[in-house]
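Could you show me just one protein sequence together with its fold in token form as a worked example?
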Amino acid sequence: MEPRVISPYKGKTGLKRVIKATGYSLAGLKVAFKGEAAFRSLLLMSCILIPLAFWLDVSRGERAVMVGVCLLSLIVELFNAAIEAVVDRVSLEWHELSKNAKDLGSAAQFVAMWMVAAVWLIILLG
């Protein structure tokens, strides 16, 4: 078995690593909020749907799933934006594989949005 190669950027451990990781995460959320209209739209949707889930007369489990799918749609959009950023970083030149990567990221978000709609409709229409 080959020895595992460890990135020189992975040297932090313990609380210092958690603090650094939190900073990177907040920076990523800031980038997404400032530069990604789709993320802002999904965040607005979540800011409406998540409180609504707590107002509706549903079970704890149903509420957890309703909130979870909203958060999942935000996660998928962050991955989609990351894929697009990496593809654009590699080359702005048109390439079929670049198009495929971006289209697949978009498809993932499309499926996530359908999942939000399906979960909410199934729970509300029972």
